[in-house]
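@channel anyone free to eyeball this complex?
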Amino acid sequence: MLNIEDVHTYYGDSYVLQGVSLEVMPGQVVALLGRNGVGKTTLARSIMGLTPPRKGVIRFRNADITHTPAHRIARLGIGYVPQGRQVFRSLNIRENLQVTARGDGQWTFERVLDLFPNLRSRMRSLAGKLSGGEQQMLAAARALVGNPGLLLMDEPTEGLAPLMVRELGRTIGELKQAGTSILLIEQQLNFALRYADIVFIMQKGVIVHKCLPEELASDTAAKSRFLGV
Amino acid sequence: MNFWIIQTLNGISFGMLLFLLASGLSLIYGLMKILNLTHGSFYMLGGYAGLVAVKYTGSFILAVLAGCACVTIIGVVMERFFLRRLHLQEMPQTLLTFGFLFIFSDLAMLIWGSNPETLPKPALFEQSIPLLGTFYPSYRLFIIGFGLAVAMLLWWVQEGTRIGAMIRAGVDNEEIARALGINVSLLFTLVFAFGAFLAALGGVMGGPIVGVFPGADFEIMLLGFVVVIIGGLGSLKGALVGGLAVGLLDNFGKVFFPEFALFTIFAPMALILAVRPTGLFGRE
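replying in thread with the prediction:
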């Protein structure tokens, strides 16, 4: 589905990604873990074409998207749920979904709203006025209505109350059941371990560890070394 | 009494022309963060192109079409081949539009000379019509109606259509809009060209009452910027309210204190800037 090979990305003058390789197979939920500032969000931006790599190749469904414009990457089928949610604040919920809706896949408005019932009753509310949890749901719904083959979620649990985290987890579980591939960038270890099929750990711009979630759960040494927990 | 009605209508009709100019200026800044100093030139070039069309065809409608078409093409070329290279570099972009302002100003002088010209009114609106016990030029009333119609149309596009929502999404967060599949580059070209189109429309429509003359570009650009400063950059409502306010201030200023005409515009602007730095309807 998604193949990242030896990607090097600079953010301004700083050398952030120093040779990252990672892959997501169809239907797989891949978790990317790592402490703050190791380059996880930069990897997401590189995939989306917002900060293209200087070296390396990113392939999506076997097409080279390394230097493809961002809007085309999205249209090829990567649904982006950016860090900090970044919903279109001055658009209402319906408009937020309308501007990104694309293709005639399984994710119709109806189906997406079934997944996020809280949004359905507030379609005319401005996104900027929603709570953090509701904005997160909207950010996920906004990516889904584009009918992506792969969902790229950058720290979706950040700043959410425990109840909302559970709600979001339920959604990710349902998406996984529906066969959606997900690259889940996370800081919350337990959340990621619950849904991931495979875990990558990043440190200082490179992948330093790859394992199954259950292996990491019992590997206290790796947890403290890479994640500080 | 008559005096007040006539002067008020004069102010409103000029205000509508300013609205045509300022709505584009405001939209371009809102989406692209470009302070387009060429906007007054678009107005002037629209007027001159309309003048040429009227000379050869005698038709006002063809003048409008010619003026708008020429300037829209200029807008597309400027955006695609020049401004695009300096994406989000505010100062270089502003300087570039400043350069175009001088180029167009000199070109216009070269081609059309330095004599002020006026476009003939369209035949349908040549007459004055009785209004509240006096006579008033129907063409100015037409401009007022036309301006309101454009305002409503723009409002509908912005609030009621998908492309309007896409533009607002781009204004909110350009980068994320791209990453969610919106072709923001295409929106940039469309918005810049459409802004140019509206300015040219103002230029041709204003031709019969304001005239076309060298320096019109600077003069009208200055007023356009006062409008968006008062109304708030990026706001359609602000462009309309600001346009009417500046149109009225300019008109009554010239009537009552001709020697301080600029003062009557810039004093209220300074006051609004002091109280509301983002203008009446601006964001944050």
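from a first look: The interface with chain A takes residues 162, 165-166, 168-169, 171-173, 175-185 of chain B (CB under 8 Å).
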